[in-house]
User: What shape does this take?
Amino acid sequence: QVQLVESGGGLVQAGDSLRLSCAASGRTLSSYVMGWFRQAPGKEREFVAAYGWNGSRLYYSDSVKGRFTISRDNAKIAVYLQMGSLKPEDTAVYYCAAGRTVGRTVGEYDYWGQGTQVTVSS
Assistant: This one.
Protein backbone atom coordinates (compact mmCIF):
# COMPACT_ATOMS: atom_id res chain seq x y z
CA GLN A 1 0.00 0.00 0.00
CA VAL A 2 1.25 3.46 -0.92
CA GLN A 3 -0.07 6.68 0.56
CA LEU A 4 0.52 9.87 -1.41
CA VAL A 5 0.14 13.43 -0.15
CA GLU A 6 0.47 16.44 -2.45
CA SER A 7 1.42 19.92 -1.36
CA GLY A 8 2.58 23.21 -2.83
CA GLY A 9 -0.55 24.38 -4.59
CA GLY A 10 -1.78 27.94 -4.37
CA LEU A 11 -2.89 31.08 -6.15
CA VAL A 12 -0.40 32.60 -8.57
CA GLN A 13 -0.42 35.00 -11.49
CA ALA A 14 0.05 34.11 -15.12
CA GLY A 15 3.73 33.71 -15.90
CA ASP A 16 4.66 32.66 -12.37
CA SER A 17 6.23 29.40 -11.28
CA LEU A 18 5.12 26.88 -8.69
CA ARG A 19 6.53 23.64 -7.38
CA LEU A 20 4.29 20.80 -6.32
CA SER A 21 5.50 18.02 -4.06
CA CYS A 22 4.19 14.52 -3.57
CA ALA A 23 5.32 12.72 -0.43
CA ALA A 24 4.93 8.98 -0.17
CA SER A 25 4.59 6.71 2.81
CA GLY A 26 4.09 3.02 3.13
CA ARG A 27 6.96 2.00 0.90
CA THR A 28 9.58 3.55 -1.34
CA LEU A 29 8.66 4.69 -4.79
CA SER A 30 11.61 3.14 -6.55
CA SER A 31 9.54 0.36 -8.10
CA TYR A 32 6.68 2.62 -9.17
CA VAL A 33 5.98 4.81 -12.12
CA MET A 34 5.01 8.23 -10.79
CA GLY A 35 2.60 10.49 -12.56
CA TRP A 36 0.94 13.87 -12.22
CA PHE A 37 -2.61 14.47 -13.41
CA ARG A 38 -4.91 17.43 -13.16
CA GLN A 39 -8.63 18.02 -13.18
CA ALA A 40 -10.28 21.34 -13.95
CA PRO A 41 -13.90 22.03 -12.95
CA GLY A 42 -16.32 20.25 -15.24
CA LYS A 43 -13.54 18.38 -17.05
CA GLU A 44 -12.09 14.90 -16.88
CA ARG A 45 -8.86 14.19 -15.10
CA GLU A 46 -6.02 14.52 -17.59
CA PHE A 47 -2.43 13.39 -17.78
CA VAL A 48 0.29 15.95 -17.13
CA ALA A 49 3.60 14.15 -16.65
CA ALA A 50 5.09 10.80 -15.70
CA TYR A 51 8.45 9.56 -14.46
CA GLY A 52 9.36 6.04 -15.55
CA TRP A 53 10.16 3.50 -12.85
CA ASN A 54 13.88 3.52 -13.56
CA GLY A 55 14.03 7.24 -14.19
CA SER A 56 15.27 6.83 -17.73
CA ARG A 57 12.19 8.24 -19.43
CA LEU A 58 10.10 11.27 -18.75
CA TYR A 59 6.73 11.90 -20.33
CA TYR A 60 4.74 15.10 -20.69
CA SER A 61 1.46 16.15 -22.19
CA ASP A 62 1.76 18.51 -25.13
CA SER A 63 0.07 21.26 -23.16
CA VAL A 64 2.84 21.40 -20.53
CA LYS A 65 5.90 20.25 -22.44
CA GLY A 66 8.69 22.77 -22.11
CA ARG A 67 7.05 24.47 -19.12
CA PHE A 68 6.74 21.70 -16.52
CA THR A 69 9.41 19.34 -15.19
CA ILE A 70 8.82 16.17 -13.22
CA SER A 71 11.55 14.90 -10.90
CA ARG A 72 12.06 12.68 -7.88
CA ASP A 73 14.48 12.80 -4.99
CA ASN A 74 17.38 10.42 -4.49
CA ALA A 75 15.72 8.50 -1.70
CA LYS A 76 12.73 8.07 -4.00
CA ILE A 77 10.23 8.95 -1.38
CA ALA A 78 8.98 12.13 -3.06
CA VAL A 79 8.14 13.34 -6.53
CA TYR A 80 7.99 16.93 -7.70
CA LEU A 81 6.36 18.92 -10.46
CA GLN A 82 8.10 22.19 -11.25
CA MET A 83 5.66 24.36 -13.16
CA GLY A 84 6.79 27.43 -15.04
CA SER A 85 5.20 30.04 -17.31
CA LEU A 86 1.86 29.22 -15.76
CA LYS A 87 -1.28 30.05 -17.67
CA PRO A 88 -4.89 30.47 -16.50
CA GLU A 89 -5.73 27.24 -18.32
CA ASP A 90 -3.37 25.41 -15.95
CA THR A 91 -5.87 26.05 -13.17
CA ALA A 92 -6.93 22.68 -11.76
CA VAL A 93 -6.61 20.28 -8.88
CA TYR A 94 -3.32 18.45 -9.35
CA TYR A 95 -3.02 14.82 -8.34
CA CYS A 96 -0.01 12.63 -7.77
CA ALA A 97 -0.33 8.97 -8.73
CA ALA A 98 1.72 5.78 -8.54
CA GLY A 99 1.48 2.77 -10.80
CA ARG A 100 3.33 -0.23 -12.18
CA THR A 101 3.44 0.73 -15.86
CA VAL A 102 4.05 3.99 -17.63
CA GLY A 103 0.77 5.36 -18.87
CA ARG A 104 -1.19 8.47 -19.66
CA THR A 105 -4.58 7.28 -18.47
CA VAL A 106 -6.15 7.33 -15.04
CA GLY A 107 -6.81 3.59 -15.05
CA GLU A 108 -3.11 2.75 -15.33
CA TYR A 109 -2.33 4.09 -11.87
CA ASP A 110 -3.08 2.27 -8.62
CA TYR A 111 -2.58 4.90 -5.93
CA TRP A 112 -3.67 8.53 -5.78
CA GLY A 113 -3.19 11.48 -3.52
CA GLN A 114 -5.98 13.78 -2.40
CA GLY A 115 -4.95 16.58 -4.75
CA THR A 116 -3.74 20.14 -4.38
CA GLN A 117 -5.41 23.19 -5.92
CA VAL A 118 -3.50 25.37 -8.36
CA THR A 119 -5.17 28.59 -9.46
CA VAL A 120 -3.57 30.85 -12.04
CA SER A 121 -5.02 34.33 -12.40
CA SER A 122 -4.69 36.35 -15.60
User: Anything to note?
Assistant: The chain is about 0% helix and 50% strand.
